[in-house]
Amino acid sequence: MFGIQNLPLFIISGLALNILPGPDSLLVVARSATQGWRAGSAAALGIGSGTMVHVLAAAVGLSALLSTSAAAFTAVKWVGAAYIVYVGMNLLRQRRAAAPSSTLARPAPLPYRKIYFQGFLTNVLNPKVALFFLAFVPQFIAADAASKPLAFIVLGCIFNVNGMLWCNGLAVFSAFASARLRIKPRVGAWLARVTGGLFIALGLKLALSESH
Distance (Å, rounded) from C-alpha 156 to C-alpha 144? Predict the structure, then answer.
């Protein structure tokens, strides 16, 4: 159907790739552990929205520009790396909300709308995601497919659904583990800072990466 081949293998491979740790997973875990599963789900929704931008861009050929133009890839790469580092810096210097006792102080919560856009921009500004879709998805589209862009979009949606299931599951698990282990506010603040450090490292890694 739709000229798609080896769909079970695509689903299994997509799940395995979604489970690999990266900026998206780190953001979901950090927001869930410090603000609850709803914050993690807001980040996951932003990530899913960013993924759909990549899917649609690849389907119409825009992502091919990143694979053929070194200038375009470098421009997007630096913008994405700068934003990931920016998010990391914000996590590092996250202030605590006022509380009756300093021992009960918690990191100031972010509005869900802002968390959503963090997830969206972290994903959509990463050119490696665009190149991934160009390299991975076409392997599961038959050469004689009636509409290759349609097949690409269908596969991209399937991949995104898998990713959303994983990210939301990760959000619920992280929030549950945080509550179950009764992570103290001070520990939660340090968790945000550690995640911020990892974001900065990932941003620098992206900045130094090559298009191939």
Answer: 19
- Comparing 46 with 140, the larger pLDDT belongs to 46
Q: Which residue has the higher pLDDT, 173 or 59?
A: 173
What are the strands, taking DSSP E only, across 14-90? Answer: none
Cα 48 to Cα 103: distance, rounded to the nearest angstrom: 36
Contact 77, 209 (CB under 8 A): yes
CA pseudo-torsion sign 127, 57, 164, 10: negative
Distances in Å between the alpha carbon of 87 and those of 24, 68, 119, 143, 163? 12, 29, 10, 41, 21
Neighbour count for residue 77 (Cβ, 10 Å): 21
Q: CA geometry: angle at 148 spanning 145 and 153, to 5°?
A: 125
CA 198 to chain centre: 14
> What mean pLDDT is predicted for residues 61-82?
69
> Do 80 and 127 form a contact (C-beta atoms < 8 A)?
yes
Residue 177's SS3 state is helix
Please report the pLDDT score of residue 83 as a whole number.
73
Q: What is the pLDDT of residues 134-153, one digit of tens each?
A: 778 888 888 788 888 888 89
